[in-house]
Design goal:
five-stranded parallel sheet, 3 domains, Glutaredoxin, about 25% helix
């Protein structure tokens, strides 16, 4: 990567926002500094952000030389098109000019621990990932990681990366992998922006992503009333009417958090009963500001005529098939996760839900390709288990390369 200049980079953030952390990690990985404005600390900053971002009510909001880039996803879309690197004045090349021992796809606990164990064995490793952290960066308090009490996800993740970075592991953030294929004794990893990495072994540790509803209005109003992270964007709806879709733990926690902000919350679950932990269910039912709709589906999300903000949510009683409209300003979708395996699903065996099938040695159906963590068919999706799976994969790869 060749640096040409240091543009003026401004980023509006919120405490606890994982997408803000992803954006900052990406910019740091490219060697850029930035001016950060935290909307927690000043309501005037919040108003300024919404005005500068053409009404967008989501964080982060990123500006480069006073040009609106938008949120983290928008920045990654600009990276894939090449526009972002033109704005930043950099050229990407050196990480794709050599044969690596191992390319790790993903920078969550599985990917980072693969890199750590591999580097300690003397392997030459490149990590390719769209962002640092996977689902871990979305996690608030973590109190079940051995030896680390009451940690915050982003802080624990940063300690993971600092440990890996000690060994000089190469990290290429903002690299979305398009495909993985085998060519004789080499594994070819192609990114969405047309670069190709070559390695003797590859580990898919790409984790999971948020599941979408797939209803009218969802994509059009994303970031303008439709959100997938209450921790990130709930603060922007303080005192307003909102809907949470999903009755599992994530949905129940989001409903409770938003009710604490003075929001009137409609919690919608398509199953006849809430599915989250009983202790969370009790808290939800005890909170007057939360109205629970079980056995209810979402039909449509309606915005104003210019699709600038959410006005209503159309819901349907699954038993009577009657529809109703809820007047809400924000919709937070918390309905689970999907394995990030599309880039490799035609190369290795995946199961009926898209998880990569591995054996006890983390081997996939193709020699030279391993997988670790939540993207695989392991039963338990936990940070400590994903990290352990990454270590296993690295140790087996070291034996394979020897």
């Amino acid at each position: 990567m060749t640096e040409k200049k240091q543009p003026q980079i401004e980023i509006y953030t919120l405490n606890g926002c994982p997408y803000c952390n992803k954006a900052k990690s990406f910019l740091k990985s490219k060697g850029f500094s930035y001016q950060e404005y935290n909307i927690n600390e000043d309501s005037a900053v919040k108003k300024e952000m919404i005005k500068r971002a053409d009404g967008a009510k989501t964080v982060p909001q990123i500006f480069i030389d006073d040009q609106l880039v938008g949120g983290f996803d928008s920045m990654m879309e600009m990276k894939e098109s090449g526009e972002l690197y033109d704005l930043l004045g950099i050229e990407l090349r050196e990480n794709f000019d050599k044969l690596w021992d191992v390319i790790v796809i993903g920078a969550g606990p599985a990917g980072l621990n693969t890199a750590l164990y591999g580097a300690r064995k003397g392997l030459d490793i490149l990590i390719l990932s769209s962002a640092l952290g996977g689902q871990m960066i979305d996690t608030g308090e973590i109190d079940n990681y051995l030896g680390v009490k009451e940690a915050q996800g982003p802080k624990l993740l940063q300690s993971f990366w600092e440990h890996v970075d000690k060994y000089g592991v190469n990290l290429e953030l903002g690299a979305t992998v398009k495909s993985v294929s085998k060519n004789d004794d080499e594994i070819i990893v192609e990114t969405e922006d047309g670069h190709q990495g070559r390695a003797k072994a590859v580990v898919a540790a790409s984790g999971t992503t948020n599941r979408e509803l797939g209803v009218d209005g969802e994509k059009q109003l994303k970031g303008r009333g439709v959100h997938y992270c209450a921790t990130c964007d709930g603060y922007l709806y303080e005192g307003e009417a909102v809907a949470i879709v999903g009755g599992g733990n994530a949905g129940l926690e989001a409903a409770l958090d938003l009710s604490k902000l003075g929001c009137e919350v409609d919690l919608i679950e398509v199953q006849p009963e809430l599915t989250g932990d009983e202790v969370l269910q009790e808290k939800v039912y005890d909170r007057e500001a939360i109205t629970v709709h079980t056995g209810t589906g979402v039909e449509k999300i309606i915005g104003d005529k210019d699709a600038e903000k959410v006005d209503k949510l159309v819901i349907k009683d699954m038993e009577t098939e009657t529809e109703d409209e809820l007047d809400v300003n924000g919709v937070f979708i918390e309905i689970g996760l999907l394995p990030n395996s599309d880039f490799i699903g035609e190369t290795v065996e995946v199961n009926e839900v898209g998880e990569i099938v591995i054996n006890d040695n983390n081997e996939t159906s193709v020699e030279g390709i391993w997988a670790a963590g939540d993207v695989t068919n392991i039963k338990d999706k936990q940070i400590i288990i994903s990290a352990a799976e990454g270590a296993k994969a690295a140790l087996r790869i070291n034996e394979y390369l020897e």
